[in-house]
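This entry is set out below.
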Amino acid sequence: VQIRSDKDKEIHIRYSITGVGADQPPMEVFSIDPVSGRMYVTRPMDREERASYHLRAHAVDMNGNKVENPIDLYIYVIDMNDNRPEFINQVYNGSVDEGSKPGTYVMTVTANDADDATTANGMVRYRIVTQTPQSPSQNMFTINSETGDIVTVAAGLDREKVQQYIVIVQATDMEGNLNYGLSNTATAIITVTDVNDNPPEFTTSTVSINPSARGRTDTQRVRNSWMLISTVSLSRPLSAGSRKWGGMGLPTTTCTRALLHSHFAFSQPEGPREKIQHFAAAVDYEMNRAFMLTVMVSNQAPLASGIQMSFQSTAGVTISVTDVNEAPYFPTNHKLIRLEEGVPTGTVLTTFSAVDPDRFMQQAVRYSKLSDPANWLNINATNGQITTAAVLDRESDYIKNNVYEATFLAADNGIPPASGTGTLQIYLIDINDNAPELLPKEAQICEKPNLNVINITAADADIDPNVGPFVFELPSVPSAVRKNWTITRLNGDYAQLSLRIMYLEAGVYDVPIIVTDSGNPPLYNTSVIKVKVCPCDENGDCTTIGAVAAAGLGTGAIIAILICIIILLTMVLLFVVWMKRREKERHTKQLLIDPEDDVRDNILKYDEEGGGEEDQDYDLSQLQQPETMDHVLNKTPGVRRVDERPIGAEPQYPIRPVIPHPGDIGDFINEGLRAADNDPTAPPYDSLLVFDYEGSGSTAGSVSSLNSSSSGDQDYDYLNDWGPRFKKLADMYGGGEED
């Protein structure tokens, strides 16, 4: 709202507000612009905490003098549908007699909504979601949508067919609108109670029982020190434990009544297929191998009105006594327990013990795990106590419909040993142990507001009521987050993220958002969404240049990167060319091996030079004999110098091998010699080479006057003292007469 004084045209006026929500607790819920008089709300408001505010607005001049009388401002918080209905109980128990007529009252379920009950936000409506089992009809019950009263809607309730119904009831606000309202569910367990509408009747008049022939089954049980020896079926089942079942008497037999009562007893029918079970106490096989009994069954209570049948029935039973090892059994199988998830390791859950019918054999029962998919449980091998080996997690993949199943084995040490199995079902109640995660993780927005926004939501691994509605908030630190961004709530699961300021430089920004669920206690998580801010066109789409700029690289930076890449590629290319040239030079020089390192005979190439100017005092015409070279050069008539390189076409010669094989060095030298003799382009072109001119005459005598001696008187043994290089000469010429 905006307040304004009509005197603001004459003097400068400053506006202020006082009262609860301004300068009284809760403080600073509202603020006012002292110049323009515009009032703002500073933080989200919750109608369930405070539904209205009474403020007073003041107008003063620059000296603090009152200009106008204070005015009253009444601010009412409009209710939003941010609270889902909550049932008083999660599980409701009720009962109804079998055969009840349609419209019979069963029970009432109640859910409360914290929202405004005068609006649709707080108006709760009920409906039945599922009914299990759906027999004899899928709609056996109905519920009053406004009061929550559950009544029968169809006939056919028969306890002997269906003893219990599980009904899932849903409460939805917004007057039951499933598209906009928030919902919650509860479970209604309806037990069908028995009425005396079935007279007892045995299916057979005589029964012969041999326990050893029946095998080891879990029907051979011990009841208060009695062992099951036979079962007699009734044609019409009766309620287990019901007073309408009545008692059973023993007629006169070949044994006395006291003996019969001390050795045999009869059970109340139980289970889905009601039967009369006969139990025997300490029967001695060596004393009595068989018993003959007559059993009578009757009702203690009269049959229901309108049933005209006999109230009792009899049957004969022949019992043969044998001794067999029977398997242990679990009295409650499947056993269901309920607990919250997350209980610590080592917590005792229950004792899942088995009973061994062979109580007189002094057998020990040992327990072990047969199936524990997640390896969460341990069982005491002696007493069957179940403890947790790990933390139970309802969100695990091993949980099906909130139930975790494990199977245990109970085995005795009889001969032969026998074993029985039992299934433990653990119903895990969800706790708020998973914080919500923000979605999406990345988004794009224009650098100027009012062009587009980012829709955000959250995902939570928990289930109702530990999920939505979610609360989306911006953290106060760093301060730039709230300065640049703002969040607008859409509904319980969605919100919008948008720019608060008029312009934000293009780039990628990490925007932290606090997401809080509706669990008890609530959990929150600070998630970061990467927002790419970029320039946009008129359609609100990010431009190509804007996308590059948003990535954090300017035009200058991109050009510098491209130049660096070109320089790097040029350096690599030059390095490759240099390496190829070096490799080529290395191949051309492989024949020039250091003589110090090579002990083989090699042809060494030395520089050859002609004579200087002072050494040209000779007649080269003596070497020019073209008439004697015709058969070699095959030239045309005329005079041709042979000490110059031929001008004509040069013949092609085979390429000389670069690296000769060490074993073919002789062939290599001969081939090179032939190629040099036949190559007219090879220097020195048969020219006379003068290395030095020492003038005419010499003080030394002619070397031709030296005569070589072949008398063998020369001693070459001193060559042995000249080292290994002269060893070959010493071996050839040394040795005296022995050579």
In short: Helices lie at 257-263, 479-484, 544-550, 555-588, 630-633, 665-677, 727-733. The first strand starts at residue 13 and ends at 19. DSSP finds seven helices and 36 strands in the chain.
